[in-house]
């Protein structure tokens, strides 16, 4: 992993990451462990091997809590377990998502609801669960992983794109409501981050070439490229930053 600046305030911090054992989430878990944070994460698939790898690589194993985040009671129980093990969650990273491609005209109500159940609903209820502890502690940071997809007028996964537009809206309303409690809420918007899952399921060399043409930086982005921005948003280095959307896409979309 690329070396990152050390943020002293993250040492010992209780950090909770959804989908933290694979793809971007795995890179984020490693990044927080390298900061000395006490990292816990959830995902459905087994991540025991990843935890062993992190123990060998960083000296600390993350707390893996097998959880289907669409089961909100299970998600809340996992958050309680993380708080019991590491102290009240000080940094929440809502990361888990499903960007599978599909035909818009073939989407039925059940598929739509299932997509929202993974791509949007857990973001709100995880935040709702940790905010009281952050209030009691005098502050905290929530980082919501969104996507530039909704800013590009792209297609092929309408529910996911819709959810990511909503995540930015959710970020801003939570930041407004809980800013007086010292809780900062920001969104991080990745561009095309190449993971093994995407290569296996839908990303073709032609598609990657077309996307690179849109980027200012002419290289593929990997999960490690999302770590620095997330650590920054989670740390006191961004103490005056909230309700913002930080784009990490190699220069495809522009803000401001």
Automatic annotation (TrEMBL):
One of its GO terms (molecular function) is oxidoreductase activity, acting on the CH-OH group of donors, NAD or NADP as acceptor. It comes from the Bacteria. Belongs to the short-chain dehydrogenases/reductases (SDR) family. This is NAD(P)-dependent dehydrogenase (Short-subunit alcohol dehydrogenase family). The lineage of its organism: Bacteria, Pseudomonadati, Pseudomonadota, Alphaproteobacteria, Rhodobacterales. Keywords: Oxidoreductase. The keyword Oxidoreductase applies. CDD domains: SDR_c. It holds the Pfam family adh_short_C2.
